[in-house]
């Protein structure tokens, strides 16, 4: 028999090896090239950060991700809340409505948006019939946001739901007995206790949307490119792996700082016993 | 600080019922609590005591009946307008707020100026002996300390009525006894009316002015601890409050007066119930005496076999088996109780120490609340 420790290491070895070869190696290689290709130095980062066009892309990527996160939160919060207060039957229905698109191919869903949002598409025609012309969304950051939001919404709803469902309803009764109307109890007791779920959902959605490639390519346009498109262009057309690595490095740093910020924001909740330790 | 007789509210519940479909969780319950009284609602789980509490609090709406506080009907008011303090079973402290912020919560909801809030919170923390703990979050407090914060939060806004739902259930025995003493002390000093829900009969006996014993959604009896123990209204109450030896049979009139015809013999009784009625005789364990030979006098007596003797220091708890196979308990001290397992004895009691209750066929299995 293997002893416990050795068994544990063995079980751990397989996923670590897979991650190491297929994930960490790639990341490390990109980062290495960003500092070492074509020569050792920070010139790739300097070039990226000094290019106004590329900085505009970075800013757009950041803003679109913020927008996607905000919209996901604005729609996901009431949706998840409804799931926790409704009947079991309606809860199942709401869950299925979230999960079915989640199980559908991202490619299919994004193409569906292309069809919906294109010039003379259904949405455009509705707008035109209402007398609002020239509002075709395809090719704009708005279209990119819609596409990403639709795909990431389940992540937000699931994060919020997992948090909300664990909140002890007796706390709201307690608030009620202490003189808080339902609205006040919601704001003073329920909302603060959902901070861990909000932080988890926002972090997840923001970080995932930073690197989205499919939606910007299909729903956006070269004039409204996102950083992932720029990286692909560097790699596949310009073959500048160093520059691509620098862009990826900046994106990674941005993602990691958001994760770190999330950890800081969720920390009081974890210490006080109503947040998930991640 | 204030006159106790003025700071408690009276509570009047009449014909209160709650039905879930065809199941009656509460069946036409009526009870009153006087101003400043400590009333316990005692019963096994599912007996309706918590349902009653939730309806007083406003968390459950009654199917029918009335709830009046100081004469005012409150069943249509939402909980946040009832001004009733509640201590929840698992405290229900807000985990994202400190102890002081938890206690300040009801004061802030009432729009009290910040400075007054600070003063009142400090007073409340002092009352529950937690001065210096105001900045701790509930997670950083022990179970007993959380209980104290919950208590302070429920009384800091000076409600006239305080409801407590098994507030000591989650604590260990020693701590529970300490807190019982404090609850009594605070009840006396605040003078407000307490309604205390518990399934623990010892706790109810120790704390209450009066106890309402619940069973199957009805009240079996309301009375002082002593009334419930010495003159139980039903066999259920006799079994639920303390320990009891119970003999069931039919009342018959003999030469020497009324007697109960039981499987273990004819037992003389004193009761106002008429002959011919089915009834049960309740004799408390400490009222029994042990004889080595059958009793020659006129007192009721029954032969029994000792099954086990538990030495408890100040007294002994002797388990006995009657000849019909039913078990009984004797508590006592001294030489008379010096018996061993397997020994044949004759137990007797004074006729005045037996108490007759009407026979009832519906009993809850969960007879010994502990």
From TrEMBL, chain A:
Concerning SUPFAM superfamilies, the annotation shows:
MetI-like
The regions listed as transmembrane in this protein's record are 7-27, 62-81, 93-114, 134-162, 197-220, 241-266
- Protein location: Cell membrane
Question: Can you give the residue ranges of the ABC transmembrane type-1 domain?
Answer: 58-262
Query: In which domain of life is the source organism classified?
Result: Bacteria
Q: How does it sit in the membrane?
A: Multi-pass membrane protein
Main location, first listed in the record: membrane
Protein's UniProt keywords contain Nucleotide-binding: no
The record's keywords, sorted A to Z, are:
Cell membrane, Membrane, Transmembrane, Transmembrane helix, Transport
Protein family per UniProt: Belongs to the binding-protein-dependent transport system permease family. CysTW subfamily.
Provide the protein name: ABC transporter permease
From TrEMBL, chain B:
Q: What Gene3D superfamilies does the annotation carry?
A: 2.40.50.100, P-loop containing nucleotide triphosphate hydrolases
EC number from the UniProt entry: 7.6.2.11
Q: Which GO terms describe its molecular function?
A: ATP binding
By its UniProt entry, which Pfam families does this protein fall under? Answer: ABC_tran, TOBE_2
Q: Which reaction does it catalyse?
A: ATP + H2O + polyamine-[polyamine-binding protein]Side 1 = ADP + phosphate + polyamineSide 2 + [polyamine-binding protein]Side 1
Origin superkingdom:
Bacteria
State the UniProt keywords alphabetically: ATP-binding, Cell membrane, Membrane, Nucleotide-binding, Translocase, Transport
Determine if Transport is one of this entry's keywords.
yes
Pinpoint the ABC transporter domain residues. 11-241
What's this protein's family per the entry? Belongs to the ABC transporter superfamily. Spermidine/putrescine importer (TC 3.A.1.11.1) family.
State its role.
Answer: Part of the ABC transporter complex PotABCD involved in spermidine/putrescine import. Responsible for energy coupling to the transport system.
Subunit and partners: The complex is composed of two ATP-binding proteins (PotA), two transmembrane proteins (PotB and PotC) and a solute-binding protein (PotD).
This chain belongs to the protein called: Spermidine/putrescine import ATP-binding protein PotA
Taxonomic source organism: Shinella pollutisoli
